[in-house]
Design goal:
Helix content: under 10%
Shape: globular
Order of helices and strands: HEEEEEEEEEEEEEEEEEEEEEEEE
Number of strands: 24
């Protein structure tokens, strides 16, 4: 079953909002107790804990189910991914004006408590990151996809205007990217892409071969079992326009929308609100 194409204006609005560099007020008292503009979601495989990366630090739910700051960093996270147990990769902008404006690639090996620079400080601003077989990052400064085996040296690949990307769990050379025209596909590690084709998705996540998930600009969650050739709607995520998507397994999916972080453990049939988001 193919998904109905979305209005180009709506798709463009979602892509434009996600691609625009953002700023935040790190001194806001509201930021300590609420989340806004989420750019990344992840679950630490060592303990199953949820992590949320918005504009002013990394957060996790506390015992009361409220957002709690992890560590001391109030950086503006623009890209975030869980690379392994207690190992996170991120990018964005420092909270202090005394540092270079772009973090490049940073890494935490203690579940977000502390961070260190891996590479490209002051040079790259990754708005999308994926680390499956290797590290793929979309650098909003150069407009190029950049690839690294170890996070220190990088190979620049195709230039395109994308919002999110997903790497095949079986083939490091198969890359999907969300664009205003639909999903663009690469089979050569992001060196070249076929033009975007419908359906239009905002965000993608690909945990297993037959479980590629996409959320469209309306908040409809869709699943493909054939690598994106065909799609089937599986549920409607509450809360409006999506901000981030992470599929932990074929049935366990997390989606950030305009008013909250929502979780499904039954493949999209039902959703539970994990954390609120301030619009």
């Amino acid at each position: 079953m193919k998904v109905r194409a979305l209005a180009p204006a709506l798709a463009a609005a979602v892509l434009a909002a996600g691609l625009t560099a953002c700023t935040s007020d790190s001194d806001s008292t509201e930021a300590a107790v609420s989340l806004s503009h989420v750019h990344g979601l992840g679950v630490d495989p060592s303990d199953g804990r949820l992590y949320v990366a918005p504009h002013d630090g990394l957060f996790t739910p506390n015992a009361k189910g409220e957002p709690q700051l992890v560590g001391d960093s109030r950086d503006d996270f623009m890209g975030f991914t869980v690379a392994g147990p207690k190992t996170f990769l991120a990018s964005g902008h420092p909270a202090s004006d005394d540092e270079p404006p772009h973090r490049g690639l940073i890494e935490s090996t203690d579940a977000g408590k502390t961070w260190k620079t891996r590479s490209l400080e002051g040079e790259a601003d990754f708005h999308a990151l994926d680390a499956v077989h290797t590290i793929y990052g979309y650098d909003s400064i150069s407009g190029k996809l950049r690839v690294s085996k170890e996070g220190a040296t990088w190979d620049d690949r195709a230039a395109l205007n994308l919002l999110d990307l997903a790497i095949s769990p079986d083939n490091a050379n198969t890359v999907l990217a969300t664009t205003e025209d639909g999903i663009a596909t690469s089979t050569d590690g992001g060196r070249t892409f076929r033009p975007g084709a419908e359906p239009v998705m905002a965000f993608l996540s690909w945990p297993k071969t037959d479980a590629l998930y996409g959320v469209d600009p309306n908040g409809s969650l869709n699943r493909s079992t054939d690598g994106g050739t065909t799609w089937k709607p599986v549920g409607e995520v509450p809360g409006g326009r999506p901000q981030a998507l992470t599929a932990i397994s074929p049935n366990h999916i997390l989606v950030a929308t305009q008013d909250g972080i929502y979780e499904t453990r039954d493949g999209g049939e039902t959703f539970t609100k994990r954390l609120p988001i301030s619009r």
